[in-house]
Fold Phosphate transporter.
Amino acid sequence: MPPRPTVLTKRTLDKDLDKITRAEDAAKHVLRRLVAPGVGLIFVGLAMLFAGVYVFDRPGAVLVVAAAALAGYMAMNIGANDVTNNVGAAVGARAMTMSQALVIAAIFEVLGATIAGGEVVRTISSNIVDTVQVPQALLGWIMMAALMAAALWINLATWMNAPVSTTHAIVGAVIGAGIAAVGPDPVNWRVMVEITSSWITSPLIGGLIAAGLLYLVKTLIIYRDDKIAAARLWVPVLVAVMAGGFMAYMVLQLSPPGKYPSLTIILIGIGIGLVSWLAARPLVLAQARNLENRNSSLRVLFRMPLIGSAALLSFAHGANDVSNAVGPLSAIVHSVGVGGGDSIGHPPLWVMLIGAFGISVGLLLFGPRLIRLVGEEITKLNPMRACCVALSTAFTVIVASWLGLPVSTTHIAVGSVFGVGFFREWYTRHSKRRITYIRSKAESFDIDEPEEPNVHETRRRYLVRRSHFMTIIAAWIITVPVSATLAAVIYWVMFALFV
């Protein structure tokens, strides 16, 4: 036998190397948690640098640069907390992966904020607190305090896994800081009444629209003898309505006021809808080949409209909620005379870009924390229900953005989810079409009909988690007073230290 090769080992050295390896693994585990905050800090620094390029030679440059940092921080918090509503339904329905949802949302958030975000920014920056009645020397500090208070509250809420309204936070903070600075007189209470009424009605409208869409889907597709044939007919129509409505909104946003009459805009939307319908038909027909006549097969056919509605909702959210980050910054920029816009309240492009990219950065870094709550834990969503939620939320937010109302995307999205869940509970018990369909299936398979469940069993089978409903409502109620109080305190501290 050939001699065994001699293996030289140094046990002490091996032990030391094992310790170093374990220490490196532990360091990597700890440092992994610091990557996202580190990237966020880098973005805040870039926002300051970006703002400094535009204002470095102007009076008040230091204030604007500091406000840009707070606006970038606020935008990241919006992305972490609020944008989850856009893609939560799609992820909960397993129509797309988390990575796909984050990328799609980030792209369309930037597009919505930069293309169509100006109208709501004007409301936040100049309509809540009358800038004419506020001394210019104080306006910047009011908006700084509002930004810091809203961002801190949203950051805390995100850490607590509570999907609060970023719109509530910034509006409450602007009011609180404004009252602390100059009293209640400059607050435009008429605008506040309009905004508050929209906060109450928008989730109800979103829930009703989502429930109505789900009723149509159940009636026209799900409870039909040939589900696949019904889906081949109606899914392209759903895509056409979505594309036509979105294009009509884009024409309204991008064209000068009054350039196109309402009839022309409606005809443009109908034309784009017809083109989309013609394009979607062959795609749906191709997807429908060889699919079994089962509800699970409908998931495949609803994937395309669900992804489209999630992208549309991200665009709408960027158009509406970018104001929560850059509205105060826009007011500060104009208060020190370095606007670059055409009048007060009209945000410069560089201000919009800080908000748009900040939302996307926050979404990519911290977004997955709340996606599962909205998409999975309130009520069970499949692609059909999720499509109704996303489409309802998108159209409600788009109309609000067009009107210049800073509504809460969180309210509308969660309201739509609850609307779908409560409608399912009602429909399950009272729909004659569903009962007839279930009985026919039971007879065809020779299955005994189930006995009527008792009260306790019915309550156990609720399709909406009441605990989440009460928790979210409570978070909504306290957001405005908490952010207003925090903003007032921060303003008094800033005033004492710097003014």
